[in-house]
Write a structure and sequence with these properties.
Helix 6 links the parallel strand 4 and strand 5. The termini are far apart. The protein folds into three domains: about 5-50 and about 155-320, 3-Layer(aba) Sandwich (Rossmann fold); about 50-145, 3-Layer(aba) Sandwich (Rossmann fold); about 330-505, 3-Layer(aba) Sandwich (Biosynthetic Threonine Deaminase, domain 3). The protein is elongated, with a radius of gyration of 27 Å. About 40% of the residues lie in helices and about 20% in strands. It is built from 20 helices and 18 strands. The strands form three sheets. The protein has an eight-stranded antiparallel beta sheet. The chain is an alpha/beta fold.
Length: about 500
């Protein structure tokens, strides 16, 4: 049976709970990318996600008998909130199954929105696990299933976003970028756009480790992934829907995949333009738009990205901030080897010049060589190769770690440890105002007659820079060392007796 999606979208019931969201210009992205970038702000919905559109429209189509028996849903988080809100408004019992990996902010929101009308069940590690368990409970309890994406009424509800976009911007739109998990959002948007403005491209965006739709379209059949990544938990779907796949074969023009660093960079971009913080799945479309522009050398076009969710766990922000600079090519990281001899440390510092140093880690470990982990602020992707070449030319063996997952996730936090060479070591903490060039001024001042055996600095965006330094000072030179500290003029604290230092570094 052929489904008239244009009619279903035009008659969808979503505005009892949803609102028409803004289509906003992203000025910083527009200027930087050389294209007119518009963001459809579905993160401003009452549940901070587009999902309540499809959930409510589906439940609004159920008969009174079905609503009286109750509904059940499986969700990675945002669909659950939509079902919970709809259930409370319709006074309908809802059982919601979510993966145990669901961020706490989404679990708490479901409880708050559904109240006594909602029963929450945590099961499995992915949406697919939760879905299988929900299907068992559906039969066991005689409930009506509210699918998060593979249902015509859900798809039609999400399609109302496209209806709003084309009403809000009646001039030509060259492409609309849409995040894909199971495919409900892009199916609904694609159906409406291709019926009304077929010249507008529909471009899907997926996390590289959860690209079931991309693989399925390439294979010409639905492909089930063995594993999915969990950073973009809202799109962590192992197999796409039958109906969404059928629609996407017809309406999707291209699919872009992005990695975690690119998603983090997109979260940062949206924050810069809107002061709002999207969740990873919510920023997928923006990350894909940026990659598409770079890949296709697009200029002077009007591009729309769906900012589709903002249910971000606060605890994730540190990771996002850490990785955003790498994803945006604003930071490059290197392993640099210098001779373990007097003067080489200062020579390396001079080589850094006026570059913004974001990280500097070192621990004495070899009598002949010193290995330094250094992060440097950059402007473009090619900068890391140029900097590495600059270090190598100066005689310092250099490895570019900018795209090394082990180094970015783990090793940068593990540089150090016990060292049998660190005899007569004193450990001091220093602080200085975190201004451009302040670290380099500190580094050049740290050129005493004593050997530096440990150095740790990381720019976390605070107002004061905090540095930990180990210096090897013989006991008969303590007085001269104290005079040196006084001449530095930086606040400092002696941590040589700190028990944590003695356990892990001494």
């Amino acid at each position: 049976m052929t489904i008239n999606y244009l009619k279903k979208i035009l008659t969808a019931r979503v505005y009892d709970v949803a609102r028409e969201t803004e289509l906003e210009l992203a000025p910083a992205l527009t200027e930087r990318l050389g294209n007119r970038i518009l963001l459809k702000r579905e993160d401003n919905q009452p549940v901070f996600s587009f999902k309540l559109r499809g959930a409510y429209n589906k439940m609004a189509q159920l008969g009174s008998a079905a609503l009286k028996r109750g509904v059940i849903a499986a969700s990675a988080g945002n669909h659950a909130q939509g079902v919970a809100l709809a259930a409370a408004k319709m006074k309908c019992k809802a059982v919601i199954v979510m993966p145990v990996t669901t961020p706490a902010v989404k679990i708490d929101a479901v409880k708050a929105r559904g109240g006594s009308w909602t029963e929450l069940v945590l099961f499995g590690e992915s949406y697919s696990d939760a879905f299988d368990h929900a299907k068992v409970l559906e039969k066991k309890r005689g409930l009506s299933f509210v699918h998060p994406f593979d249902d015509p009424d859900v798809i039609a509800g999400q399609g109302t976003i496209a209806q709003e976009i084309l009403q809000q911007h009646q001039a030509p739109i060259d492409a609309i970028f849409v995040a894909i998990g199971g495919g409900g959002l892009i199916a609904g948007i694609g159906e409406y756009v291709k019926a009304v403005r077929p010249e507008t491209k529909i471009i899907g965006v997926q996390a590289a480790d959860s690209d079931a739709m991309r693989q399925s379209l390439k294979a010409g059949r639905r492909v089930e992934l063995k594993e999915v990544g969990l950073f973009s938990d809202g799109t962590a779907v192992k197999i796409v829907g039958k109906e969404t796949f059928r629609i996407c074969k017809r309406v999707v023009d291209d699919i872009i995949t992005v990695d975690t660093d690119e998603i983090c960079a997109a979260i940062n971009d949206v924050f810069t333009d809107t002061r709002s913080i999207l969740e990873p799945a919510g920023a997928l479309a923006i990350a894909g738009l940026k990659k598409y522009v770079e890949k296709k050398k697009v200029k002077d076009k009007t591009l729309v990205a769906i900012a589709c969710g903002a249910n971000m766990n606060f605890s994730r922000l540190r990771f996002v901030a850490e990785r955003a600079d790498v994803g945006e090519f604003r930071e490059a990281v290197f392993a640099v080897t210098i001779p373990e001899e007097r003067g080489s440390f200062k020579r390396f510092c001079q080589l850094l010049g006026k570059r913004n140093v974001t990280e500097f880690n070192y621990r004495i470990a070899d009598q002949a060589k010193a290995h330094i982990f250094v992060g440097i602020g950059t402007q473009k992707s090619a900068d890391s190769a140029e900097i590495a070449k600059h270090f190598t030319k100066a005689g310092f063996a250099t490895i570019d770690l900018t795209h090394d997952e082990l180094a970015k996730s783990h090793l940068r936090h593990m540089v150090g440890g016990h060292s049998p060479l660190a005899h007569d070591e004193l450990l001091y903490r220093f602080e200085f105002p975190e201004r451009p060039g302040a670290l380099m001024r500190f580094l050049t001042s740290m050129a005493p007659n004593w050997n530096i055996s440990l150095f740790h600095y990381r720019n976390h965006g605070a107002d004061y820079g905090r540095i930990l330094v180990g210096i090897q000072v013989p006991k008969n030179e303590q007085k001269q060392f104290q005079s040196f500290l006084a001449s530095l003029g930086y606040p400092h604290w002696n941590e040589s007796a700190n028990p944590a230092y003695r356990l892990f570094l001494k």
